[in-house]
Amino acid sequence: MEPILYIVEKIDGDYAHLRQIESPDEDAKLVARALLPDGIAEGSRLIYEWLEYKTI
Asked: For residue 49, what are the contacts with CB-CB under 8 A and spacing of at least 6?
C-alpha cells in the first residue's frame, strides 16, 4: 500500500475534511477525528500508511 499525503482542510466537530496533497482537485475526504492523531489542526499535514494516519 502506497502512502497518501493529506492536509487537514477543515475541522467540523468530530470530523475532519482531508484533501489529498497530490490530487487537490478531488473531493475532500471526511474522516472521524477519533481515527486521526491527537493535536491536529486545520493546515496539519498527515500521511496515511498501513491503515493509520500520522502527522508529518
From this structure: 1, 3, 4
